[in-house]
Write the C-alpha cells for this entry.
Amino acid sequence: MDRATLGSECNKYNNPRTCGLSEELGLSKVQAKEPSNVDLSDPRIKRAVSLDLGLARSFSVNSLEDINVPTLILAAGIDIGDLPQALESGYIARHMSLNSRQYKIYENATHFSFIQRCKAEAVAMLEEEVPGDGIICKDGLGASRGELHQLMLNDIVGFLNQ
C-alpha cells in the first residue's frame, strides 16, 4: 500500500467508495504494526490470481512493475458503484509487465460475481438488514453466477497448471 500513490490517484479520479475508504480502513496513516520492509515478496509464491481487486490504485507503479510472478488478473465488466475495472484491475494490468500477467474481463460479471452464490431468500434478507445490499447477489444479464464461476474456475485452473 502506497499512500502517496493512492492520494495522487484519488486527486485524479476521486471516488468516495474507493478514496473514502482510506480513512475508514486506517490507510491514511502509518499503523502500529505496519511492516517497514518494502520488499514483502515470498519465494514460495510461483503464481498469483487477482479477483476483481478493489483499492488497486493504492499500489505504486514501481511495485507493480517489479512483479515478476506470473499473475492472472480477472475483472468484472459491469461497473457497480462507479468502480470501473479500468481504474481497478485495469490499473494493475497497465502497470505490470506483459510477460508477467494475463488479463481477462468477464463482461457479464459484477464485482460481487466473484463471491459465493446467494441463496434464494438472500436478496430480501440483505435488503431488510441494509437497504441496497441486495446488490451483492446481482450479476449481469446473460450469465448466472454458477456459469460465471465455472468460467472463472476453468481460467484459473488453466493458468495455475501452465
In short: The longest strand covers residues 71-76. The chain has a mean pLDDT of 90. DSSP finds seven helices and three strands in the chain. Helices lie at 3-12, 16-19, 21-24, 61-65, 89-95, 122-129, 145-160.
